[in-house]
Design brief:
The structure is a single chain. By secondary structure, the chain is of the alpha/beta class. It has helices spanning 38-51, 68-83, 95-104, 107-110, 121-136, 138-152, 156-169, 174-186, 192-202, 218-221; strands at residues 5-7, 13-16, 24-33, 55-66, 87-93. It folds into two domains: 5-123, 2-Layer Sandwich (Transcription Regulator spoIIAA); 138-221, no CATH class. Helix content is 53%, strand content 16%. A five-stranded mixed β-sheet has the order 1-2-3-4-5, covered by helices on one side. α1 links the parallel β3 (24-33) and β4 (55-66). The radius of gyration is 19 Å and the shape is elongated.
Amino acid sequence: MHAPTAVDQAVLDLTTHAPSPDGRVRLTICGELDISAVPALERALRQALARATRGVELDLSGTAFCDCAGLNALLAARRHALERGRTFTIRSAGPAVRRLLTATGTWPLFTPGEHALNHDEQALRKEVVQLRRAMQTRPVIDQARGILMATFALSPEDAWDVLVRISQTTNTKLHVLAGELVGAAQNGGIPEAMRQQVKAVLATLPAAPTPPGGEPSSEDTA
């Protein structure tokens, strides 16, 4: 039995398991995948790809949070794997990761029906195009999250959760919802209907967000 190798434990719990007999490397990721964890994640992904002869499998069942920065790193790693003739799949994922990948439409990219590598050039090109399109949506999503943070005095995690939940309840792609929010903010402010959607989601969060200084936000006193 191969002993796993731990990487950057102080930042994120990343464990790279030795290659299996069929040449696949499994990477177990526990903790939160946000922008501060991306450097450690990228190093671990590069190491896993370098050791794998067939592909990389991710175990994200212990990943409690993942934002656009974490998703961007996963998408980039998958693109690199495809370019090298490797597979890059998610073996298991927790609720937070599933919500994110479902909302962004990227879940099918990481969960093929079978692990066999598809050598068809046209299919590979199509997947690369999908990956690049998904990566291009990150800026507008980050802008929308910043608007929610400033308007409703939210933490980055709560702002992300609000976006994802509204996307799910309204059956709207995450990048489309983010674009609508950014556009509204640039043209007179967030419409009342969207404000009510945000407040409805905030009511379901474990604790109400409190702005710096302990004073209620303008949204709470309106």
